[in-house]
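Incident log entry.

Two folding requests arrived from the same account within the same minute. Monitoring flagged them as a possible duplicate submission, but the sequences differ. Recording both here for audit purposes.

Request one:
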Amino acid sequence: MSEKLIDPIWKMLGLLFKPHPWHGIYIGKNAPDVVTAFVEIVPTDTIKYEIDKASGFLKIDRPQRYSNVCPSLYGLIPQTYCADKVADICSRETGHTNIVGDGDPLDICIITEKTISHGDIILEVIPIGGFRMIDGNEADDKIIAILKGDNVYGNITDIEECPSSIIDRLKHYFLTYKEIPGENIHAKVEIAQIYGRKAAHEVIKKSQEDYHTHYGQIEQNLTQQLRG
């Protein structure tokens, strides 16, 4: 829920129940410069976890088929959604037609020097760029961010300043993480562009607009129901 909600009903619910990681956590008052991220998987995970949209719990999506593991923290930006507006950016920038949003929260990779041992946590991050990834005909952007205050990477403000080895590892992971032994699906996944901070901000803003279009009445509806 947004920070502006000071309603006593929401304060009470916040004490009694864990907020839904997608709908119930605020993206942050300084978005898109600084955003809240919810971490689903960490580099030591050999299972791909993802949020269960209905319950908000983490669920097992699939075991990794090969030895590749995600080289960064990976998760989602709360209160975002990839639909028409995100797809329109992808079509405009790549020239691809018939692109649709993937129907998920906006994905984010978080770079940090620290070893974080488990997911299901939230943290403040600074977006520095992203991958304009296309999976089939779906826009599947991956925002790349730095953990706020990180001692090693904390001064990076744009993807051009990030070590190329980190970007190369992330590219390799996303181009291969869906491969299945004996099947060739590599061609279905494409990183059409690597973009910087300004473009990342645009994608985040449009994903917020998509979220508002599809889910913007959640807080109002719940408040009305609770008040009877």
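Request two (distinct sequence, not a duplicate):
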Amino acid sequence: MGEGLLANNMVDYGWLESEKGDIIWTSSDIDSTYFAGGNGKNRTKIGMLKLKKGRYKLRYRSDDSHSAQSFNFPPPEDTLSWGITMYSLPKDQYNSLEKIFIKDNSTTFLNGQNVFKLILASDNSIWAATNLGISKINRETHEVVNYRKNKSANKSLSSELVNDIVEDMNGNIWIATEDGLNMLEPKKWKNYYS
């Protein structure tokens, strides 16, 4: 568990190195973490590793603004898990949990840490405006499709920080971002800049 800031990625995070200094596991990427409760910057990452016999180095980097002993914002729900906690599992438990992790890693979740608005569209889908784009949720299948800014594409969100989202009477989804207005017609983007 650590602290993540969208502009800076993770600022409190840990990693595991091999004896040679190769990184085997890390929680440095904010996109691979989940909300840990309390303030939105409290992030957690859970991983499973099969380690060969040998020597390893467990590392943790922390800044001075948010730590296990001193939280400058509402703390996570389980403050005792701040940092890295490792457990040894019997093979049968590992195999059972590994199946859950594989399923979880293949599941798409909503973009972002903060949801600013939800709407129910005329096609019965739910749209979520977040700080990392928009997400469309199929209410029947629970499938999630995420839309983020694509720097290499001409037509995508103008910014990932989405402040508002509405549907007009023609079924177009209008998206207000910090860097312009976007409209998503079925399968077609239009961008409007000031």
